[in-house]
Batch of 4 targets.
Target 1
Amino acid sequence: MNKRGKYLKNFENKNLFINGNEALSYGAIFAGCNFFAGYPITPSSEIAKLLSRELPKVDSYFLQMEDEIASISAVIGSVWAGGKSMTATSGPGFSLMMENIGYACMTETPCVIVNVQRSGPSTGQATKTAQGDIMQARWGTHGDHEIIALSPSTVQECFDLIIKCFNLSEQYRTPVIFLMEGITANLREKVIFPLAKNVNITPRRKAKKNEQAFGGELIPPIIEFGHGRDVHVTGSTHMENGMRDIVSQGVHDKLVRRINTKISKNREKITVLDEKIVEGANDAIVSYGVTARPAYGAVLKAKKHNKNISFNRLVTIWPFPKKQIINLGKQVDRIYVPEMNLGQISREIERYVNCEVIPITKIGGIPFTVDEIYKEIGGTK
Amino acid sequence: MIFFIIYLFKIYTKDLLRFNSVVVSSKNGENTLIKIDEKLCKGCDICYTICPVNVFKKSDEINKKGYFIPNPVNNDKCINCGLCLVMCPEFAIYLDD
Amino acid sequence: MVTSKNKNPLIKYLRKEALPTTFCPGCGCGTILNAYVNALDNLKIHPEKTISVTGIGCSSWITSPHFKGDTLHTTHGRAVAFATGVKVMKPDMHVVVIAGDGDLAGIGINHLIHAARRNIGLTVLLVNNNIYGMTGGQFSATTPKGLITTSSPYKNIENPFNIADIITASGANYVARWTTYQIFPLIHSIEEALKTKGFSFIEIISQCPMNYGRFLGIRTGGKFLEYFKENSINIEKAKNLSENEIRGKFIVGKLVERNSPEFTEQLRDINKKFQDDHR
């Protein structure tokens, strides 16, 4: 058994009382992460702290880089040299990483970027929580691109979903963003660790001798460095063999459409929702992340008072689960969208539904309570 | 004449030796033919500027892209210093038997 | 001398479909590519054993797309940061960064200095043509003061960096400066840099006859080489000269050679601590 296997055996039959940062760090090790490059930023510094201690135990590498741009650069470079890599940051660092996230999209580099959201814009409330980077995760980098972003609501999900992030990144050869909130990062809950052998890990599909790394099929296999294949990786528009061609319109059209289609076409396979639809309910709540917890609490409270509300929690925020939301919009008169921002997902929902969309916004670093949401959805008691 | 050329070469390479380098050793009197691949040449003036014995002269001949190709008129004077081979930005110069 | 039918024998290291190069006639980039493959050929290093990492700019086009072997053409200024990730995962390969002064000494100087500080086993060839060539001749961090350029029509009021000195001060294991005129010492220096274990750095002062030469009045590659020849002073000689005598000149030679421990090796040493116990 290799080092990682021996290390993971220590978690067998263990339930630990840990916080979100720790849970996702252990999850990354379970997923096979062997390279982390990061820069300290509240509230994600703990991820780097734990991984700096644990990654050497599984013969993996931890690097503290000079800034977030260097962090994401080192992550992408390491992937092409054979690594399974991750970085973690918060809003300001996430903004810095945008150019190279676009580079990862264009070169189809599988990697995971954790954004532990804090109150913005700018330095904002550095130690307070928010959900303000939702649209940025989708559109932060320039040009036409698709992105996959997951959002955990519990500390257990921090563990489970980070593994899913790594799997999605390998399956769709794309960077995946893990959008969590500062509060979940610091929240302590019980995490049940699975047996390492029961963890499903998507292997990296490497190209055979006659396969190309940048075309030829919807999701081409990757060619890592060091195998004598003369791989040419560039952020410029390139042909199927990776060589740059910025002149012909057809090459750019084919490439950019393909890297968008590979995700948008598989929207339904990728999107995961926690749906609790009630037949005949006139209202629905759509929420995500930590806000989903008091939102569901409000749904339960409403039920006690004989009001049925459908509940929908977005686990994958991007690509947006448009089919499920369109269906929901047809069944109800009103969709409430509680968010710790000034209405980012509510705007996205409005595009797809004809019913009324009522954003419930709260900013300032204090999360929603059940009563706050309950009051907004018409609850009086 | 040959001694004069060796003398010139030594003066020139002394220039380079000042920089604590290992100089390519020359084989004097070898009959090598200097060839220019006109598909690659861009008619910059580096080879005929750098050649210590003025093998090259700019010719009136232009290639398909309109560059004036250098002509190794004084091929027999070549002292095999290797500068043109290494300096050419286009890898256009090579030696043929 | 190796003779060959029909082409320069070192073209075997290049991607034939990329030739002729996209460089301007007389550009130093082609000469540096030539020097680089000569150095690899002398050391018998096959392109398969190298990973080229480049940034954005004319000099970043030296190995990408012309040179064979695995290539990572990254974003502006970030080549060294990408190369850090590559080297950690592939410590046995030669990871060579070739980029320009605008790229490495301008936007990317942060990453360059930190990599030198870490002494990570990269070989960095900074092609210094003292200008932002590709975008039309804007002044860069190494453009001399007082020069009129595309973005300094009233003369450059900024002082230039002495980039090789900065890297020396940052702790690199090998630092040298040459111009494209001193081609044989340059090839030898590249060989030494490739053999160096820690961070090796060569500032190669190169000619840009198109977008820099036009501000200096030097319009061809050959004239530029003569300019380098006349204004280069060997570092040993420069030690005995006054500041006035060396101002504006190119001080060439090996600046420093150290034997500090290399970064990725130390990183692996940390992991070795956990060979037997895993808690």
Note: Chain C has a mean pLDDT of 94.
Target 2
Amino acid sequence: MLTGDPLKLTISALGFILMGMFTGNTILLCLGLISLIFLYAAIEIQPPTNLQHLPPPESIIAYVDDEQTITHQITVEKGMGLVTLGQNLPAHFSLIEGNNIQAYWVQKPGQTLELSYRIKCTRRGVYQLNNLNWETRHPLKLKPTQKGIFPEHTELIVKPRSLTAKRIRQQKIFTKIPMPAESRVKIGVPTTNFKELREYSTGDPYKNINWKATARKLMSPNSRPAVNEYEREGRRVVFILLDTNKALGLGTSLKNSFEYAVQATLGLSEFYLTRQCTVGLCLFNSNNQGKTTKPVKKDQPQYLFPETGKIQQYKIHRLLLNTEVGATDNSIHQAADQMKGYIRGTNPLFIIVTRLTDENHPNLIRGMTELQKYSRKSQNLKNLMLINVSGYNLSIKKRGDKSAAELLQHYENAQLNGLRRFGVTAVNWDPSENTITEVLLKQVKQR
Amino acid sequence: MSQNQTPVRIYEASITILGSYLAISSFFNSSLYKTIATALNQLLRLFQIRTISSQQITTIIPLLVTLLVSLLVVYDYIVGKPENIINIYQLNLLLITPETLSYSKLDWLNLIQKPQILEPTRSPTTVYLSGAIILLGYLSLYFTSLSRKTSEELAYRGVEESSVKEIFLKQSALSITLTTSATIISTIVFIAISPLNTFLVSIIGQQPYNYLAFGVPGVLLLLLSLWFYFREQEK
């Protein structure tokens, strides 16, 4: 196949030659030869063909805001001319360095071309790199352009960043962040830590009978021997509830309250998992009043039962990777109802990650009242913690917005104070000003 | 104007000015112009209008027109589109036609008994070289304009400027090299035609139908070209 240009050249060459032959004019004949020789020489040049592709690795794992270099190597086995390579970027990726479309001049066979560019992963998720498009052209455009694609199998896994909380070992420092110190599982190997005295029941080992206490109790009628009860070996339970209410979408599509809420959830789960706690995760929607008790089922899993170790950490990562605003319609009631078999009797620490608004405030109060049913009351320890991800500063676009955001934050603080009176450890986090680590460190006080 | 494009732009301007000068001087040196000038002179004298002599015209007018073309090239260089320069070549080819046709063996003007309209005035080599330079300019400028379009397209698609410039330079260099090579080969053929003709005449000149010995290969070459083109089209 040829383009229209060779036809034009042939016609002009033949025109000169025919005219020269007809009139017996050697000048015209030789002028016609110029076009003809040029055409023959130009058509003999082959455009670049037989392109071999060396793709990037099949899986690339990065964290949000990380920069990654994508490199493709193409070897042109034959031909000469222009080669264009281009690859569309997946959504939520920005180009930092280089170019995702590039053109190369191939001078000799076997030349290796490299398409390399740096991208920034701006949002968590699992992405697929688009196919690499190629295009080859004859150096003088005498033959049609060839186009094609190299199928791409590279998967880009962008993980959310988590907080890097460390244990502070100074003895004179204490934190107001609750640890589920009282919560224990019921079954487990008894330790040597004394818990309480209780009545003897059939099957108790004799060595556990507290003879002094039994002797004191002999004065009363129908008394039974008293035995020592020891703490059982077990793990403390933390339950994180992540709000997927649309109010958390405040901000831009890349930097909004929900993205930071995910970051906080991930960080807290890692924090407690590394401290030998069993951590459970549940998605809920604070816009739902919780009147209906039947949970709405969706394709995506909405909760993770309390477990421990790195496998649980991986499961939490996978769940949060694909969680979006509005992922569930279940209220806190429904979430607690789903998980009650796992939390009853364990006296867990509940952490709610949300954004307080006028609409969801009463629902959250009702939900927390429900959760308190599963917690044993203690004067010193609070088993309910709420992290409010304030998003007003994230949505500032123009000058006046700043003042409006400050006003709304005051109102938000008043709401949080109300919750503190209710017995909740309420933490306010403005992601535009502090990291979650900094906010949690503020809870640490000198004795 | 980018630095990388400068050599190509200088080449375009030089070949255009040179080609235009050669075309204009060819026309003013042709017998056709002399016939027209004489007729015009007589007509003006009839109405008693003073004119300069035709000798002065052949000196002044080519220089004036070349100056005009140079100004046009400079104008295109500064504000116009470079590909518009190629339009000048259509005029150049038209201007050189009378002098080229004056070397025809077929004296067709003899039919109207006016053979003096197209008579050779300069050497055939000069005429051929003028024509070859004009054609060289036409072909190379046509392909550099295609390279320029490719560059614009690539830049529009977001290819880096440095790559676009490099591609333009290499693509233009290739087209200029190919056209120059074709012109040189053709010039060698033209120069070799006269001794080759003498040699062939000494061998086959006495043979009957000797014209066929030149005519048949010529026709075959034409047919081969057409076959070649259509074969490629079919692929």
Note: The mean pLDDT of chain B is 78.
Target 3
Amino acid sequence: MSSLEAVVRELSRSAARSSALQYLEHAVLAAAAWVLAVFLAARVLPIEQVLRIAALGIPFAFGAVAVGWFASRPRTMNLMRTADLELGLQERLSTAWERRLADGPMDAALRGDALRHAAKVRLAAAFPVRFRRGEAAWIAILAATAIVLVLLPNPMDQLMAQRRADQAAQGRAATTIAAVKKKLTNSTQPAPVDPQVQKILQQLQDKVASAPDPRSALQNITPAEQQLLQLSDPKTPARATTAQNLANSLSGTNAGRIAAQAIATSPAGGAQSLRSLGSQLQSLSPQDRAQLAKALADAAQHAQDPAMAASLQQASSALTTGNLGAASAALNDLAAQFDSLQTQLTNDQEIASAINGLEASRQQLASQADRDAGQSTAPSGSPTTGSGSGQASGNGNGTGNGANGTGNGANGTGNGAGSGAGGGNGTGGLGVSGSGSGSGPAARSTERVYVPGQPVPGQTASDPTPLGPGQDVPLTPYTQVVQAYQQAALQVSNETLIPGSERDLIRQYFSSLSEPTK
Amino acid sequence: MIAEERIDPAKVTELATSLEGELARLIVGQKELVRDTVIGLIAGGHLLLEGVPGLGKTVLVRSLGQALSLSFARIQFTPDLMPADIVGTNVISEDTGRREFRYQPGPLFANIVLADEVNRATPKTQSALLEAMQERTVTVGTETRALPTPFFVLATQNPIELEGTYPLPEAQLDRFFFKILVPFPSEEELLEIARRTTGASITELEPVADAAAILAAQHVAREVPIAEHVLGYAGRLIMATHPDRTELDSVRRYVRFGASPRGLQTLVLAGKVRALLNGRFNVAFDDLAAVAPSALRHRIFLRFEAEADDVTADQIVAEILEKTDRAKAGD
């Protein structure tokens, strides 16, 4: 060695080489541990893109270890000390390096002595390149375990698929709502309530898109429908009926036949015709006036809207007394009410369109919610067919609920008393659409509930059918029949004219039954 | 005063080798004893030799005097030995017809003083020796006189005859550079001793160095550099001897007092000499470890529990050496 600096360079290279292998092992170990941790976590938590996350951690582990390797490079003095100890140089190198700039009586001799002895040994031997078997064994164990985990089926895969389907269903439902919004916006006759409808739909779209699952998303639709319905004027049907009666009455008169046709066509046209009729009263013959007064009086008598009835009665009385001015004013007042009716009908059309759109969205979410409930209810490895529910549907009591649900009798007559397993607010049924109310303590989710029934195919010997006190018929675990019950109940609800919210309650009830035991 | 001349470090090694070789003509075996003696000599320290009678302690010291061109004096310490007997006294002299007090130097006025069976003298006399060892001067009456340079005291004591002895106090023990245990020779060495000492021929040693060479060697030895981390190791060894500053259970249990700062000085200086004698120009951990027993065994004062459990200072030092990390970072 020509100088201490050359010794330092040689030692630095050797140390870097030696520690690089060690840190490489550390990096591989860290990466293997990361991958294994991700795979293990993916078996207990629903994690998307497991392989990608695992792969992303590998360069991170290598990078972190590389930083550690770089930061832990030994100082020159430590290199010399290690070389002294490992090579038996009796602290020559470290002392010489410490006094490399000193000019004492022995410093020159010290440096020469150190260099002479350094030249006699292989400096790289101070930092041997060692392969740590213990660490390598751990790497092999972790890698093998990770491979086994990859090859074994992951119980979370089904949940992940369900979650993706849920998200897709929610996305489709939100898209449907957005399409409804767009359609209403592009309408040629925008309704006055359009801003409120748009706002309600926008809020619903956001809630559906951000809901944790389709069932939660479904729960937002009914309140939105109710909000939409609140925008509608409850007097509109009465007014529409009154208008129709007026058209019928006027159709039998000479003077009012044209107005009757216009009213039958649309309230707006009717309003125009009534104003025209009011302005033409002077030119009518007394006979026609009497005929018109009588028709107006008939319409007033059958009117379901008090304001319209008053206007009709006022116009009829004025015509009878020959006060044409008052009759004309009353007809104009009636025309204004027809204009209002036209506006209300327009609003109702828009609200109806929106609700129709929501029903489509509801169907999409409900389908996915039903699939979710079916997947979580079906016992693994032995899918049930739903057979064995015939007896239960005959007596029509059909009321069983979990925490808060509603059941409908499938067939027959319900007595309105809550029965079944527990029951918060149960509804019995009269026929297919009857309902009643019942109450009782809610079943705990940990309870195992049995219903009478025949043993079903696939029932295992380890799951015998116990007989309760005083019972002489075998009992079947409810998990084996609830799906059939659900299908029957949903089928009946689909075939019955009931509000969508009622169907939601049915789905919610069965979904609550299928929730995993906590 | 002898002028110190600068010599080559290699000359010190040669001097030590020559001296050891010359002593080996008379002393059979005992290489460690001879090496420690030479280290103490070049370090300028006083030595305490402990061993049973007949092992050649006195012969070694006397031979050292012969192998070096230095004045040699032997004092046999006895209970009735008085301080004046060793430092000298004023006596009446009659020169030119006039009587006056004249100082008569004692045997301490020699380059090499053998204090044989030093623990048999009274503490009063031991104290007189103490001043001479530490100050390298003696005071008689009101006058202080310097002792010749170099000045070595090589004291001997017998570890088994305790009756009628005055064990050296801790302060006096601390002033000895080394306490060297003289081991019993091996069987082969024993036979060689018999051959050499029972024949007709008498071996006479030739001087291999003089006072100037010794002083120059002492000067060179102090120039040997010691790295900071090696010095730190020496410091940790000393700290480890203190029961309140060590992590070693044995030290906490058996040691009453640890080594003084003079112990650290001794370790470093002896390490430097040993490095030089081994042809090195720096102090190594091994140097400190090699001299530690001789440098520390008389500076570690044990509790009664140590005596009860038959634990010696050498065992404590050995454990300290074993447990003290040489490669500790941050030195």
Note: The first strand of chain A starts at residue 425 and ends at 426.
Target 4
Amino acid sequence: MANLVSSIQFADPYFSVLLLLIIAVGMSVGFVFLSQALGPRKYDRIKYSVYECGVDPFTSASVRVSVKFYLVALLFLLFDLETAFLYPWAVLFRDLGLFGFIEMTIFVGILLVGLVYAWKKGALDWQ
Amino acid sequence: MAPISIDAAALLTSVQSIVPEIIVVATAIFVLLLDLAISEEKKHLLCGMGLLGIGVALFSVYALGQGRIEGFSGMIVHDGMGAFFDVVILSACALTFLMATGYSEWEGTHKGEFYSLILLSTSGMMFMAKGTDLMTVFLGLETLSIPIYVLVGFHRNRMSSLEGALKYFLLGAFASGFLLYGIALIYAVTGTTKIPVLATMLYDPRILASPLFLAGTGLLLVGFAFKVSLVPFHMWTPDAYEGAPTVVTAFMSAAVKAAAFAALIRVLLVALPGMQPVLWKVLWGLAVLTMTVGNLSALVQNNVKRLLAYSSIAHAGYILVGLVSGDVLGGQASLFYLLVYAFMNMGAFGVVMLIAQKEDEGYDIANLAGIGFKYPALGALLTLFLISLGGIPPTAGFVGKFYLFSAAVKNGYIWLAVIGVLNSAASIYYYLRMVVYMYMVTPDVEVAVPRPPRILFSMALCASAVVVVVLGIIPRSVLEIAERSVLSLLM
Amino acid sequence: MDFINSHILSLMTFLPLAGAAVILTVPGGRDNLVKTIAAVAAFLPIPLAVQLWFTYDRTVAGVNVASQFQFVEHYSWIPSINVEYFLGADGISMPMIMLTTIISFLAVIGSWNIDKQIKGYMALLLLLETGMMGVFCALDFFLFYVFWEVMLLPMYFLIGIWGGPRREYAAIKFFLYTLLGSILMLIVMLALYFNTTDPETGGHTFNMLHYMQQSTHNGWLQGFDVRILLFLGLFIGFAIKVPLFPFHTWLPDAHVEAPTAISVILAGILLKMGTYGLMRISFPMFPDVTKWFVIPMAILGAINIVYGALCAMAQSDLKKMVAYSSVSHMGFCLLGMAALTPAGMVGAAFQMFSHGMITAMLFFLVGVVYDRAHHRDIDGFGGLAAVVPVYTFFITVAFFASLGLPGFSGFIAEAMIFIGSFGVFRTIVMISASGIIIVAAFHLWALQRVFLGPLNPKYAQLEEINAREIFCLAPLAVMTLILGVYPMPVLNLMNASLIRLVDVVKMVI
């Protein structure tokens, strides 16, 4: 079995990626079904209500969320992506040397300008 | 793992090949920061700084010349073609800034991000025009598109602006998806995204016959067709053009079209000439459809912005005629026309912008009534731009169209030329309709009072007019540059 | 002086344009200055035309021989596609150049009473003159096409802004019809361009003279059916301008709505461009197709003559009647050309010149009465001869000239056309001859209704024709009379070229 896997892996370097994908999807889907299949089920009236505890809902569930949340979410995405770039750079820091350092400085610098802009425009003020 | 070696000389050439783009991006960032530092009354400085940056970028294009500089291991190349489109796009951007001096005051777009977004979009266009790798082209396309989506919806309080932005965004996102999927399929078959390498791969008949490759090319074409608004991928154009702030509309019609065509020309002429028989029939059909539908729809418009939007669709069709011809003359004609089109169309939008006092309401064609005599300079300018759009000598529009159709005839596409020429005749009707309103219709109430143009605004209009007239009478040098640009592509 | 001699055609073409540029710099409100400048700019080509008249060598033919063209100016214009700035004159263009200078100048004088936007009016009128001169001088097809189109716009504005009540409709109709024609011309031009080469450089060429030598044996021009298509494309383009039935419907509209002086130019010069184009371009470039097409051309000519005359008879509007009489008279040109005999061809060219003057007179005269009575209804007048004898004298002269009375130039032209074509197509000519009777009938009938009979008391105080108007009419009337008695000055001018043209067409079997 191990032999077979490694030989396939040789034939196609992306095979391991596919394998990872299958396992990841399989596990997440599998757990949902597993809990469905194995968990004990006892239904009553309360279980069918929207909330299992607390008071009955008195407004629509689809309320408007303040636009400020979106701003924060956007900023979060931005810096999250930044990390995604920073990480491989950190791994290869020594190999990339000065060139990589300058590149990254420019990249981070541009993001910094963005942050300053957002800050000055008041995107970070909650009020 | 092998150490990554960075060749200092190659790096320097790489940087050199994108100097104009670097300048534009730097200007964009600087303008954004400057906006934070200056007070409300000094916002016109933003425009000035932007213009300065564009000027320096134009100078750098001039300094780089038409020589071939390959950068980033063949992902980007500064060649004659790239330089030509840099000039077209930067000129369109400069005209936009000049017009924005006035427009921003009237419509409240004097904001750092407004100018910054235009500059960022410009940089994307320039990358797209210079990209010799499908990935660079795609990145350029995204960099140009995203700021434009925002710019179209810049008037947050106008429904039409939001509607246009949403439509443009959704369809634009689809287009990007198509393009990317097309690139992926092409990569799947050929194992490369480099445009010059693709060209050599196509000598292999197995690749040419592969259905995946055909599908990939088709999707690629659809992606481009969305961006240059070829029929039947043009649905977004009238709404986005109508809704966008007029300065942005002018910018889009000239610069986005130029950039997308630049990439399309590169792909078609360099990578895909091997697909001649199949692909060219499709392009033929697209060109005919685009010209005809664009012109026929424009005939019935009463909103000047929509009218010009449909006219710009039709013009995409004319430019495609040059590409269908598929030789140096055709490419040269398309390049020349794109340059001329940028000036005449932006000029027309500029005058219309002055006459319409308000977005949405001011663009009714009846608003033009009586303008011709009350404001002779505006009337004459708009007439000049319109007859140039219609292709009547001695304007640059005529020389451009003449070249396009002669390329078609030369390569045996007689019917295409005939259809194109008939279309261009039909288009005269709606251009002249605007002229009729300006000079021959007595206004119902009173003549609209145009907004007084700023000096820089007038400069933009005069510059456009000069280009339209001069290139109509002595097109020689620009035609030669266009020819050299296309030749640089085929080297 | 040397400069003038070597650039005489350019000067004649661009002096009016320079005048237009000067006019645009005149500050508003100084109408008389504008008119004076316009008159000077339109007058300046006349001495140059006189210079042409005396220096033109009447013994050489031109037509398809480059070395025989006179006053040639030949420069490169757009070298990448070999477009040349190539002007020259021969016997086909000389009379037309003369006519253009005279009629344009008289049109400026005739526009003296325009008061709406005089600056724009005069500038456009002068631009129009530049376009017309350019068309008659150009020997490069591209240049010809550019001038042809340049002429369109001023005409469009002149009708559309200064015209009558339905001016927008008339202007657009005129524009679209003519544009359709010129577009067909454009395609033919491109087809010719890519199938001919300049023998010196080997590149493609727009030189008309090269076309004439090569259009039958290069590329896919070799196919007769292709040449037929190309010929028809050009023919329709020119036929719209002439205007030939069934492309004539723009003409009455344009004429009725156009201001007087513009009608004069339209009928006096623009219509001649159609027949000029046939002579200069269609015939020598496609001689074999021309021969194949003579019968349809003659039939179309005959239809024009009879149908135009019948329509004229049915009109109650004096101007519309004159407009339809133009349709009829231009039919004679086509008939004469179709005969492909020296007499027919010379007659046709002479008819172009003569009709240019006569119809100009007629439109001036209609304008005179319209200015005073503010209508043109033939039945609305009556007995005017008693009130305005001088005016009546002039209109009688013009009508007689127009109906082809011997002693006027129109008679000579029509006689030559009939002589030249009778031997070739007998039936068609006999049918056409009936047109002459109808032409005479409606002229006389109109004369009777407007000027004879009991005086309509409404017009008892009608103002007599004034000195300026006489100044416009007298030269034309005198020339018509002189050429009617002794046509040789103009015939000499064009004989050699037209005989050569007939030979060029006939040479091919």
Note: The two ends of chain B are 37 Å apart (CA to CA).
